[in-house]
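Most newcomers find our protein records easier to grasp once they have seen one. Sequence and backbone structure share a record, each on its own labelled line. Nothing more is needed to start thinking about how sequence determines fold. As an example, a complete record with its sequence and its structure tokens follows.
=====
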Amino acid sequence: MKSLCVIGSLNMDLVTTVENFPVAGQTVMGKAFNTFPGGKGGNQAIALGRLGSDVLMVGKIGEDMYGKRYLEVLRSNNVKSDGVSIEKGMSSGVAVIQVSNNGENNIIVVPGANAEVDINYIESKWSLIERADIFLFQLEIPLETAIATMKKLKKQGKTVILDPAPAVGLPDEIFKYVDYLTPNETELETLIGRKINSEENLVEAAKTLFDKGVRVIVAKLGSDGAAIIKKDKCTRVPGFIVDPIDTTAAGDSFNAGFAFALAKEKELKECVIFGNAVGAISTTALGAQEAMPTFERVDKFIRDR
């Protein structure tokens, strides 16, 4: 099995559950409050570790109790933390999350130490980084760091997966270094600058990104599963039906499942099916990482359906 590396954010999620989200100027009573390790990078690394991957996390935490706790979480979930350093004098990243009764969420992210993951830091960890085969990126560290790192990895023939989240417009250059782009519908609309309301629109939108250099787009479509889009065709892959409790890390879990199967050199459709399963299971408990499954659980989940 190929080895993996996640380069990205490490946040502590501060989660409040509410009946309904407040509107501007309104105060509502929350039902519960919890803290969970999160951040898109950390979520993907933890999910990979639980699946049994050989995975390295690269990022930064702050000089606070959240950072210390996160190091313990990484190590206890089979994630190599040699690529994680403490940024002195700074807080760890935090995400303030509201979760409603129907499992929907909204999120405010404060980057903290994640903003200090610069190009020099990546260079200082390069001897560790270059040992991996497949790399996962998101957009919660400085964009210039992600682009420079992807460029260097592609020169070495590595495989790059980009989850373009949170949804922002991106410079054309980045797409030259991406093998697999994994946006949800909102993120894809942001990247192409227009609404998508049909499969025809989906395929047409993807052409713009292929022209910029992307090899394959795997569009995450929520309960509708995913779509594998190549230059010549679009293949729909149905999702799995579960009763969601918290959808916070469903996209991160999908990416981890997809990358895990890719590392096992499965066919692309199998990789997406596995990603769909990991993503679905991850929504069945509160907190970004609480329901992230083992390989055995995912395997049984797929076979049972």
